[in-house]
Automatic annotation (TrEMBL):
Note accompanying the cofactor annotation: Binds 2 Zn(2+) ions per subunit. One is catalytic and the other provides a structural contribution.
Signal sequence range: none
Residues binding Zn(2+) 1, per UniProt: 85, 177, 207
Annotated Gene3D superfamilies: Aldolase class I
GO biological process: fructose 1,6-bisphosphate metabolic process; glycolytic process
Name of the protein this chain belongs to: Fructose-bisphosphate aldolase
Keywords in alphabetical order: Lyase, Metal-binding, Zinc
The keyword Lyase is annotated on this UniProt entry: yes
Top EC group: lyase
Organism of this sequence: Robinsoniella peoriensis
EC number: 4.1.2.13
Active-site residues, Swiss-Prot/TrEMBL: 84
Entry superkingdom: Bacteria
Single GO molecular function: zinc ion binding
Amino acid sequence: MLVSAKEMLDKAKAGHYAVGQFNINNLEWTKAVLVTAQECNSPVILGVSEGAGKYMTGYKTVVGMVNGMMEELNITVPVALHLDHGSFEGCMKCIEAGFSSIMYDGSHSPIEENVANTKKLVEICKEKGMSLEAEVGSIGGEEDGVVGAGECADPEECKRIADLGVDMLAAGIGNIHGKYPANWKGLSFETLDAVQKLTGSMPLVLHGGTGIPEDMIKKAIDLGVAKINVNTECQLSFAEATRKYIEEGKDLQGKGFDPRKLLAPGTEAIKATVKEKMELFGSVNQA
Ligand SMILES: [Zn+2]
């Protein structure tokens, strides 16, 4: 059964490790993440962006697939199904569809609107036993081919949003989505430390986990990060393994064109990346 992310993240924050959110795109992705979490005896968060939700034909399909898979694969570790960077409307749809966790990304709205919408969602999530992530200070990344630098959140605004009763908070600390540019300045631990001091036991979320050096990840966990989002890295692993399979001409040998064979190396590559991250984040055997 899907669970809210609240308990696993409170435990992670207290235990000084982080739970990975791995974004899913299709059946192979979902299966790879669930199986690896079970093998690693680790709690896990399945992230679904609005785009990926649409691609998988809608949130109800996603809920049906994940619930069915958990039952038939005998997944017993805690699993949260979480909307990533949701609009207010997207959040409402996922609540209705049976997600167990949502992120409301009001970071592009004026702070007053972010506060008002977050408040409404806090009420609904409490009633439904779901967890809610809020964001302050937008996370940078590639938009229309331009890589923006990651913003740093205002710690006072973070406290204001945290005090509304959300379960986890994404605060921009110079992190960005996608690959990091060569001239990236690194995470702002000063901002993270200031946010952590004002928000206390609130689990903090680090978006854009792909390509952040290991020592920075560890330091971020020490400073209160309890959830780390990984998306691009699984995509790169999947693409690289699939490319290799085709370049070696394996799809042309025997029944190598069978989609179950064609997609297998990529799926295995996702599993390896997820396992590596769970080890780095310290969530192995914390289920
Ligand atoms: Zn993000």
